[in-house]
Amino acid sequence: MNINIKYYVLTIASIFIALGIGIFIGFMLDGQKVFSEQQTAIINELEQKFKDLQTENNNLKNTVQELNKQIGYYNQYHQIIFPELVADRLTGVKVAIIETTNEFIYSGMRNALLKAGATIESITVIKDSFDTGDELEVQNLINFLSNKYGVTVDEKHLNEFVVSKLANAIVTGQDVDLINYLKTNGYIDFTGIPGNTDFVIIAGGSNNKDNNVASIDIPIIKQVKLLNVPIVGVEQSDTKYSYIDAYKKQHISTIDNVEDIIGQTSLIMVMEGKEGNYGIKQSAMSLMPDSFMNTDNSTHNSSANSKK
């Protein structure tokens, strides 16, 4: 009797286990079906999104091509109109350009000045600060300056002393031997003739966080202002570290996009007398001046008056 009860118990248990296994297998099969359907739906949705993105990408490519064509047309228009627009605006104005870094090339700005009729008397490129050479080079420079000017030059303020004297030499034409010494010893590149300067353009900006705007650019600006010669500060729009705010504190006009025609037009307008801070950066008060000066009030008259 006991054996039969155990048999029934085992049989019933086996049946329930079998049912459980069957239910589990059925649930798993049904779950796989659901999962497979969900996976298929997701794949279809992703494929549709991918097709939509391809379509959008093709549309954007077409838009970019059209915009590039329009930019090309505008550039051609600017190249034709710009020389006519600025012709003779700066006739008779003698300009000295001082580039305080050799990281950028300002050939476009120079060409714009020539198209406006200006004469570029000199171009100075300061290659590096004057206190970064080896100890012997720095000492030789200090000795040269001390002998020439009869003063004791402090190495701590070497940059400020050199650029102040250099700016004076560039603008007035005095101390040409200083220019020759700095050029011969690789501190600067200098082309042109010093002196006879109506206007100074200081071109700065840097891609180096540890720049020399305080020890080189600012003393140059101060010295030129002491000589009562107009000065404007410029830089390219792609400089990582802008000098414009430092220039503005010296109360001079600035252009922060001088590499393009808009900035070059602004420069010529400023040199005619439209003072202000122009360009595309936050430091600018507007993109460009609102109008050219009347021909009768052009810079060759205003700059001459500023020297009286």
Automatic annotation (TrEMBL):
<dbReference type="InterPro" id="IPR021522">
    <property type="entry name" value="MctB"/>
</dbReference>
<keyword id="KW-0812">Transmembrane</keyword>
<keyword id="KW-0175">Coiled coil</keyword>
<dbReference type="Pfam" id="PF11382">
    <property type="entry name" value="MctB"/>
</dbReference>
<dbReference type="GO" id="GO:0016020">
    <property type="term" value="C:membrane"/>
</dbReference>
<feature type="transmembrane region" description="Helical">
    <location>
        <begin position="7"/>
        <end position="29"/>
    </location>
</feature>
<feature type="coiled-coil region">
    <location>
        <begin position="36"/>
        <end position="70"/>
    </location>
</feature>
<keyword id="KW-0472">Membrane</keyword>
<keyword id="KW-1133">Transmembrane helix</keyword>
<dbReference type="GO" id="GO:0055070">
    <property type="term" value="P:copper ion homeostasis"/>
</dbReference>
<protein>
    <recommendedName>
        <fullName>Copper transport outer membrane protein, MctB</fullName>
    </recommendedName>
</protein>
